[in-house]
């Protein structure tokens, strides 16, 4: 029953994505987002840009995001994917743009996990939070568009990424010292 529901969800999402496949602009946006999401590259760039804005808080946020997404990547891509071993969608014979073909399990989407973990951490106290989450959504959606992941892989990745981001925020808060930090834990 659960497999039927997940399969129906994946098929519906793939049918929606199929309406945009072949559109030059959509292909360019989603293939580029997918490529920038490889190895969490876009989150490292965003973290460095936040650090360059100056201030100890921005520097701590950037360092925390880089370290946490590195830990997230290992946890998801090495440990978690080895447990699930889900097959990827049927590969398109010809992708309109270059695309790296991963060999790991399809579930969960590492791109979606890194995207939402990175967005959660970088958005902490930053007015650019909507930019981070919009970028995360595009990176995550790109994996369905390019047919590297099932939509349920992406949803699972989003949930895991948000959870890991919250855990990292709790373990390594940006505030320092005394009572102010203790209050932030409540």
H-E string: HHHHHHHH
- C-alpha Rg, in Å? 17 Å
What is the number of strand segments? 0
Anisotropy-based shape: globular
> Structural class, judged by helices and strands?
mainly alpha
| Helical residue percent band | over 70%
Low-confidence stretches: 177-186
End-to-end C-alpha gap = 40 Å
Please describe the biggest sheet, giving its number of strands, its sense, and whether it closes into a barrel.
none
What percentage of amino acids are in beta strands? under 5%
Number of helices: 8
Mean pLDDT: 89
Describe this structure in words.
This protein is mostly helical. The chain has one domain. Helices cover 70% and strands 0% of the residues. The longest helix has 29 residues, at 56-84. The radius of gyration is 17 Å and the shape is globular. The termini are far apart. 35% of the residues are buried.
């Amino acid at each position: 029953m659960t497999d039927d529901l997940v399969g129906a969800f994946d098929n519906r999402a793939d049918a929606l994505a199929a309406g945009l496949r072949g559109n030059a602009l959509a292909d360019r946006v989603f293939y580029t987002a997918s490529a920038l999401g490889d190895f969490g590259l876009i989150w490292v760039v965003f973290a460095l840009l936040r650090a360059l804005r100056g201030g100890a808080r921005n520097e701590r946020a950037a360092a925390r995001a880089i370290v946490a997404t590195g830990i997230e990547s290992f946890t998801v891509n090495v440990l978690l994917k080895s447990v699930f071993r889900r097959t990827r969608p049927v590969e398109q014979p010809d992708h309109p743009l270059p695309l790296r073909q991963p060999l790991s399990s399809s579930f969960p989407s590492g791109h979606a996990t890194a995207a939402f973990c990175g967005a959660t951490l970088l958005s902490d106290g930053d007015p650019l939070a909507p930019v981070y989450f919009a970028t995360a959504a595009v990176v995550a959606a790109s994996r369905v568009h390019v047919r590297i992941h099932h939509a349920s892989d992406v949803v699972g990745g989003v949930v895991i990424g948000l959870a890991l981001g919250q855990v990292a925020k709790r373990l390594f808060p940006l505030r320092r010292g005394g009572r102010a930090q203790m209050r932030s834990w409540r």
